[in-house]
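Board notes (copied after class):
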Amino acid sequence: MKILVTGATGNVGRLVVDELLARGATDVRALTNHPARAALPADVEIVEGFVGRPSSMPAALNGVERMYLAPYPPTAFEVCRMAADAGVRHIVDMAGEKGGNWQVIEDAVEASGVPWTHLEPGEFMTNAGIWAEQIKAGDVVRDTLGDVVNAPIALEDIAAVAAKILVEGGHHGCSYPMTGPQALSRREKVAAIGAALGRRLIFEDLPREAAIEQLSLVMGEYATWFVDGQATLADYPQAAGTTVADLLGRPAMTFAEWARRHADEFRPGVNA
């Protein structure tokens, strides 16, 4: 059974490849624009390409039974039609909250007629990387809405769920909202990173415009969108769910554990 992983150089796709191999998959094909950068294992078949370049998809889709679809809205409908025409029997996609910015991915998958499973993660734990340069420079993190709560998820858990479904099959027509195991405030996340570093970090709340100015240093034009999204969360805090634990039979990674694993990304002299 040939399994195709698109976006195999991406943060989630690369982890999906590793999880598939760990689960015993023996016929894994990886689609990537950057084969050398991906540093893929020797027993993984590599096809150079990108879902955003549909001309590269026929070679990638040939003989594929199951497929992990990385989210790329501009070509989602075309790529999913091509998957259907190529005989793909199951698409596991990563989208997001229903009705949100990534809804087009789910719409495209369902329109293809191929049996599907939607993975709908919330905020990634890796988003904490927006604080990395501030933490490297000192003990104060300047941001906004420090008491806003959500339940971020580790990329490793998204990949593990995707791989389990791709290897075992089933879950057709299922949509899985995915969170981490704890609902935490932004202030608590900063404190957890500090604990992983053996430091006491302080979260300094900024007003909206000052926060946008601060975050634009690392987020550019998306800073306004991000800050306003946090304001929405203030009215609708996200609770932690159990989907990851239910599907994997083990606890989802906590933010504290993630911070310990990624502590070097917040240390001076280390490039994230």
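Comment from the instructor: The two ends are 36 Å apart (CA to CA). The mean pLDDT is 94.
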